Amino acid sequence: MTSPNQDARPGNASIDHLVLHYTGMQSAEAAIARLCDPAAKVSAHYVVAEDGTIHALVPENRRAWHAGVSFWRGARALNDRSVGIEIVNPGHEFGYRRFPAAQMAAVASLCRAILARNPIPPRNVVAHSDIAPDRKQDPGELFPWSWLAEQGVGFWTGEVAAPGDLMADLAAIGYDMSLDPAVVVAAFQRRFRPARVDGIADAETAGRAAAIRELVEAACVFI
Which reaction does it catalyse (predicted)? Predict the structure, then answer.
C-alpha cells in the first residue's frame, strides 16, 4: 500500500535524520488507514507492526509527512531530510505497552538497512519527542533505546558524568532550547533516563546529559 500523503523532497536535501515514532492508535490497521487517508495529511515511510511485519508506505527518496514542526541540532522542517518509521503501539492515550521482541527485531533490521543507504550519523537517530518535545511523547519511555544502540542503531551510554551546565548540554545534544526548559528536560529524560520523566533538572539528569554530550561530540558519533 502506498500513501498519497507525500511529495518531492527539496532539491538540495540529503537524508541525514531517522525519526522513530509510535502510532498511538488502537491497531495497525487503524494506523495504516490514517497514514493513507488524504484528509489526514500525515504519513511515514514505514510502519512496523507488533508481529514484525514491515509496511512500506512512501519511498525513501520522497518526503513523508511525519515530523511536523520540528527541530534538531539547528535543523528545522525535518520532513525534508528524514526517514520516518511508525512503530505500532497504542501509545499513552490507548494503553501504552512495551514493544514486542519480534517488532523490535524488525525495527532494528529496518533501521540498519536505512542507515546503510543514507548518511545518517548516530546523533541524528531521534525520537519524535526529541524533535518536537512540546507536542509529542513518542515512542516513549518504554522504547528500548539502549538495546537498539547495541544493535548498531543510534547511541546510548549508561554513564553519569560530573554535572555541568544542563541547558548548554541539552542544546549541544540537539534540543530546541527556545522551548520551556522543563519540557525539554522531560524529553531528554524520556529518551535517556526513562525511569524518571518529570522535567526536574536534578543532579542525575544533569550528569546523564553531560555524558551524552561527551558521546555526541566524540568522533565516532559523527561517522
Answer: Hydrolyzes the link between N-acetylmuramoyl residues and L-amino acid residues in certain cell-wall glycopeptides
Please, is 11 exposed, middle or buried when counting C-beta atoms within 10 Å of its C-beta (0-12, 13-18, 19+)?
Answer: exposed
Cα four-point dihedral sign 97, 101, 103, 104: positive
Active-site residue numbers? 86
Q: Which CATH architecture fits 1-155?
A: 3-Layer(aba) Sandwich (3.40)
What is the rounded CA–CA span in Å between residue 98 and residue 90? 10
> Which amino acid is it at 93?
E
Q: pLDDT tens digits for 53-81?
A: 999 999 999 999 999 999 999 999 999 99
Supply the DSSP symbol for 133. T
Task: Tell me the CATH number for domain 157-223.
Answer: 1.10.101.10
